[in-house]
Design brief:
TIM Barrel, 9-stranded parallel β-sheet, 12 helices
């Protein structure tokens, strides 16, 4: 049986477009408001949702996601609460893939022995662990394999093709290709060598390619979509939410979704 992630990517490919993956910090500005927001983002055209788990030391994230994480933590957001929200989102949107986007400490603290079952019960399709290197994922990969969860690998512009191939071994769903060197955040332009890097990642990893970090406008998303199976928008949406409110954040995602079609 194909996973929701694969079915989604295949559907978008049949429609001759890239999938739109939207990252949302769950719990920002409050758990209740973020649940409503995610529902609206899906209705606005998000093909997949990355459920961002707020963490106190998000070393891969820039100021926007850091700020959102602090807001969410102050609002009392925890992994059990996120799983409750995911369960309701899954019921409302049975076909939309949900990827848990987390730092490892939160998952380890929850307990790996019960994590897989809890993720499966909540309707999570894949897990992206930002700070778990290939050499240290031995205790986590079996959790994903046992419960049929796609482990989403990350590669960066600094990753050699040989290492990228090893990173992707045993993984599923797609490979998350970081488009820039550095932390998450809105950029005014993307690197000129991005197209070649995405194509190299596709050849090395033999998985669909999702490009993320820095994509902030419909024009940038369209540009990247020519070389990627999926386009990830995170900081641009979260920053708009924090600075201008949910309506503007949803409007941004709607504009990007229309631009990809």
């Amino acid at each position: 049986m194909e996973s929701r992630i694969n079915l989604c990517l295949n559907r978008c490919r049949a429609e001759k477009r890239s999938a739109l993956v939207v990252y949302a910090t769950v719990g920002c500005p409050t758990p209740e408001e973020s649940e409503v927001l995610i529902d609206r983002l899906i209705d606005a055209g998000a093909d997949m949702i990355e459920l961002g788990v707020p963490f106190s030391d998000p070393m891969a994230d820039g100021p926007v996601i850091q700020r959102a994480g602090q807001v969410a933590l102050k609002a009392g957001t925890t992994l059990p609460k996120i799983l409750e929200i995911a369960t309701r989102i899954r019921a409302a949107h049975p076909e939309t893939p949900l990827v848990l986007f987390s730092y490892y400490n939160v998952l380890f603290h929850y307990g790996l022995d019960r994590l897989g079952g809890a993720l499966k019960k909540a309707g999570i399709d894949g897990v992206l662990v930002v700070d778990l290197p290939m050499e240290e994922r031995g205790e986590f990969m079996p959790v994903c394999e046992t419960y049929g969860l796609d482990f989403i690998p990350l590669v960066s512009p600094a990753t050699s093709p040989e290492r990228a191939a090893r990173i992707a071994e045993g993984c599923g769903g797609f490979v998350y290709c970081i488009t820039v060197r550095g932390v998450t955040g809105v950029r005014s332009s993307l690197p000129p060598e991005l197209a070649a890097e995405l194509e190299a990642a596709r050849r090395a990893c033999r998985l669909p390619v999702a490009a993320g970090f820095g994509i902030s406008t419909p024009e940038m998303a369209k540009e990247v979509s020519a070389h990627a199976d999926a386009v990830v928008v995170g900081s641009a949406m979260v920053g708009t939410l924090l600075d201008r409110g949910a309506d503007e954040a949803v409007a941004l995602i709607s504009a990007i979704a229309v631009g990809l079609r």
